[in-house]
Amino acid sequence: MEPTQRTIQLLLRPDQHDGEGQRIAEAARRHLGLHTGRVQSTALYTVRYPLSDQQLRDFATHCLQDPVLHEVAFDEFRHGPEYRSYILVAKLPGVTDDEGISAQNALGDLLNEPLDTHTQHIFSKRLYFLEEALPEADLRRLAQELLGNKQINRFEIGPLTDIRDYTPRPGGGAEPITETVPLTGLSDEQLVQLSKDNLYALNLEEMQTVRDHYAGMQAERTAAGLPLDPMDCELEIIAQTWSEHCKHKEFAALIQYRDLDTGEAFEVDSLFKTYIKDATSEVDRQLRANGNDWLIKVFSDNAGAVRINPESLFVWKVETHNSPSAIDPYGGAITGILGNNRDPLATGIGGARLLFNTNVLCFGNPEFDGTLLSNQLHPRRIFEGVRKGIEDGGNKSGVPTVNGSIVFDDRYAGKPLVYCGTGAVLPMQLDGLDSWEKNIEPQDRIIMAGGRVGKDGIHGATFSSIELDETSPATAVQIGSPITQKLAMDFLILATRRGLIRCSTDNGAGGLSSSVGELATISGGAVVELADVPLKYPGLRPWEIFVSESQERFTLAVEPAKMEELLALGREMEVELTDIGYFTANGYLDVRFADKPVAYINMDFLHDGVPRKVLEAEWQKPQAQEPTLAADLDYTDVLTRLLGSLNICSRESVIRQYDHEVKGRTIIKPLMGATGQAPQDAAVVRFNFESWEGVAVSNGILPRYGDLDAYAMSAGSFDEAVRQIVAVGGKLPNLSYGDGNFWSVNDNFCVPDSVYDPVSNPDGKQKLAKLVRMCQALRDATAAYCIPLTSGKDSMKNDFKADGVKISVPPTVLYSMTAKIEDVRRTITSDFKQADDVVYLLGETYDELGGSEFYQFFGELGANVPQVRFEAAKALYILIGEANDQNLIQSCHDLSDGGLAVALAEATFGYGFGAEVDLPAGLPVPVQLFSESHSRFVATVAPEDVVAFDQHFGGRATRLGRVTSDGQLTVRHASQPVIAADCATLRHEWTNGPVNRIIGFGQHETAQQ
Amino acid sequence: MVDGDGNILLPGYKSVDGGHESAEPLKSSTEAQAGNPQPAADRSKVQALILTGFGINCEEEFAAAYRLAGAEATVVHLNQVLHGHVSIHDYDILNFPGGFSFGDDLGSGVVLANKLRYRKNDQGRTLLDDIREFVAGGKFVLGICNGFQVLVKLGLLPDLAGTATPEVTLTHNASGRYEDRWVRLQVNPKSTTPFLAGMDTLEVPVRHGEGRLIIGSPEAAAAIEARGLNCLSYLDEAGAPTAGYPRNPNGSDLHCAGLTDTTGRVFGLMPHPEAFLSLYNHPDWARRKRADPGLSEEGEGLKLFRNIVEHIQRQPSASASVQPKARQASI
């Protein structure tokens, strides 16, 4: 029986300005070259709930309509007389519809009765009217490229005379049946084809291993009453557990490395173990030997944890969400940030309080004007969608986005990189237990908390482990609901403080299969009853329920005796909790649907059975040379244009749309100064309102250098993140006995497919060699600074293939660093503070323009890539910390993209100061101005402190000049001016660079009167 | 609260687990009925009740503001109040913090306002009934950002007619976007609200996408201006009220950043004074401190909370400490 379907339409009153309509018309013209005429935007709510006419009217006028803004129409599509065509944007079945759910919530309040939340009764849509009678193809383009995404939206378009409505009808489809998948007798080709067809992402050897395992289990399976062939759910579980995403097979592989230049050859027995885990163990040994025992949890949980003080832990995690963001930028980014939030939330027992978010984004040139490949989204669209996803993911969760970075390179035009980081704080003890430990006893209940399960995100774990192509599946896309997660988060905080939860974990990649599968390793097994799992709609097969990556879910282990109290708390806080089974100790993951087996897998095989990969790496130094540039360059012009270049220009339009100060604890924000336009090196956040302790946060990422030397790129990225923290007043760890100065670092490798294949990946060995060298640099850097890694991630297949073309990202590594700040009031910002303060360069400049923004400006790469000289760098960082203890530093800005010239300019942006600077004799002017040599800073010093400052730094500080009040930047060399610029002009160029132009600067619309 | 050397004068220790720590959170109804003792509230202090849950997210700094101002802050989940486990009448100030209640899916604050207006408790009363009684009894209501939006959609601001009917609305910024930036506000000299007593200007961050005040009719606008209910205006660089972006970040009618009702006891504003409790929240703190090493370490936003706490302390009869009856009634 079809319930009556009613429609409520909200229209802006004629005297109200339709900002959305106007923005759509402008964007259509600007980005698509389409002239729509005026656009009218309206909201539709389709109600499939039995209501009387009066109830419907009351609901619309009391709950939906804003009497000042809207008029309401019922069961019609009202519009102005001048419109000729329409676009309806609805959601596909099962796609999260928060607006519809909220309307349903409001209806329940109005009627004063709880509505059955298992069924969606209200569906939200947008209906747009266009003045021009555009052809269907144009309307469809507008719909798909500006108004929605065909992966999640259903569009209806056409002339106004023929408006078609669409309301999703979830359900129907498959029965809850389980099939077997015979493997015996399949040829190698058939095994590979099966893996590809079912998106298992397993290679031949892995498929053979699975086949052989089942061949050897026949007696046991017969005895247990199971089919001899694997059931579909079993293969899905194995594929998910063995996916590159979850198992990091390439970081665990045996690698044969050869240096073709020197003939040197060696074997790497797991990149992760050799360069990351063992390196951190050595750091930890040194820390503990010196009374610094703050490293609490590394590499073994959802996030790493370090001790802030005897009461508290700091939890830190950074992940990537690249593949989903390539297909649905908004959905990919919002689930990226929300998913990453769940990692610290569900570390140890769980219930950490989120303190801040960060993000680092790598995109293709947003002004790209060439032809796109099939299913490739325009880089501008990816940029805008990802930015919006991060805005909603952070802002709506109440977590400040305090730090970030955007890197542009055409090689990110296929797959963008979307790194999301979250810092959180957790009490050391929760209800008397160590909060960072995960304990589970057999018979503990398995509770699923938060959202419901649908077909969204099926195969995300395996899908992100292969390259993207034009046929990539829509079901791999998920939509986040920040409010659902906020409710679950609030619940988790209280439940853990009350001792109601033994431990928790996140449902991310791999869904229940991953979360239950991993928790079950603690007790030694689990029984799951999938028929009890609450679904968004019927029609899911058991295996789909188990691997679905529907968002906003946690899996909890709960003592049976605590169940009643936990469920009561869930009801009170309106968080859905479902008992879906219990943990065991029998060594099997036992999954059932309505008591019938759907999977019964030996835990040892599942977690340790994956065959090890053996890979080859070959290194050869790339041919490169220094270019010859014109001798008569106008450096004022070069500086001005560098400030307006894509990788250096202001990101203010992006930054201001992120809430960077909710929670009231942000001390150094991305932009500071009286103008609010002075860019800062690292963010600083205090932990609470009762102490001045805080944490500094920074990001190091320099992919361009990797074209010259992956080792130098990785080392430089590490140093960049360290020096950003030093610039704001952070101190290196372990400088004195028991100083307690924690550092916590996440490494995130994002590389192209680095497994050699003579046909599909002929340069795979070179790519893998780059990865090895990146890891070697990481090991050397951690050892040099005594800075530990606490968690990390690798994303191995960042390639986009379509129409016979492959776009691969450059090998990229991000180091996301956090360090304790003893007193946030002693931190340092980058902007000049007062006229006549003395300007210094700290550290040494080398002829290292290779890979610089300066060379890039002339279309050159060069050869002399900047090297990190760890010992000298460390000594300088220690000196800076000591100088800050003596209050000798008034401002400090690290030198990075664009070198000294850009850093000097940026330091004037906070207030209206200028600077007079004399470059020392020695290196050529362009090297002094634009070299990106590492471990350097521009610092200012009060005139009265100059003697002490000089004495303290000795030869490490070069006096350059002074801060002036006239707003002019003057740089001289051998008494000749080389730069003479008005700082307001420089700031204007920087502020009106391509990023702010593309994102728009939020000017008010002209109100139409 | 810090002394001249920056030492914190606030009791409490260095746990980072703030927020709910003083406010025993969310008792289940069985616990409440069993008469579990409430946290040892210091009833001699002004009592601030701060609502949270359903996407509200500024409750921690809100609570910190009241504690720094010398009041006792209690953070509770909205359902605690809706289900009758906590009575607002036990408190002096009812606070609606910022955030995204119910995701702002139907317009900012709409679903929460709807819940307060229509959801009835066992006695058949809505929370709006309670709030109107609370205000009529001389008590105070403060809404910031999303909380301001809730009070506007509930019709409690400006409430010219005294019937809790919406007369103005808050909608999408003229820029069409969410924005985080610092603004300067002027206090309307005509305003009599104790929240703003003795204040002339105020620097604060705005962090919203729907802060554009639209007044339903010219008559309403005239009445608001005549009674000085538009208590805060956005200022330009020269210190004059402005419609110009970005100093006026949203394009509000009357350049208005905040409203009071006709009693001055209900107050709402879009910007976040609770985000400026310490000097070190300000984007220009480092230069200002260099220019004036003796600069107070207190943020300007704290003044507003001190104002209302001190105002209530001066009216002993209005203090919740002498009216414990409602609490007993709720058990």
From TrEMBL, chain A:
Annotated CDD domains: PurL_repeat1, PurL_repeat2
Binding, Mg(2+) 2: D343, D506
Domain (PurM-like C-terminal): residue spans on this chain: 442-591, 835-972
Keyword match Metal-binding: yes
UniProt pathway annotation: Purine metabolism; IMP biosynthesis via de novo pathway; 5-amino-1-(5-phospho-D-ribosyl)imidazole from N(2)-formyl-N(1)-(5-phospho-D-ribosyl)glycinamide: step 1/2
Phosphoribosylformylglycinamidine synthase linker domain mapped to chain residues: 193-249
Binding site for Mg(2+) 1: E319
Name by which UniProt lists this protein: Phosphoribosylformylglycinamidine synthase subunit PurL
Gene: purL
UniProtKB/TrEMBL annotation, chain B:
Region (Disordered): 11-41
Source species, domain of life: Bacteria
Coiled-coil regions, chain positions: none
UniProt feature, compositional bias: Polar residues: 27-36
Gene3D superfamilies in the record: 3.40.50.880
Alphabetical list of PANTHER family matching this protein: PHOSPHORIBOSYLFORMYLGLYCINAMIDINE SYNTHASE
Protein name per the record: Phosphoribosylformylglycinamidine synthase subunit PurQ
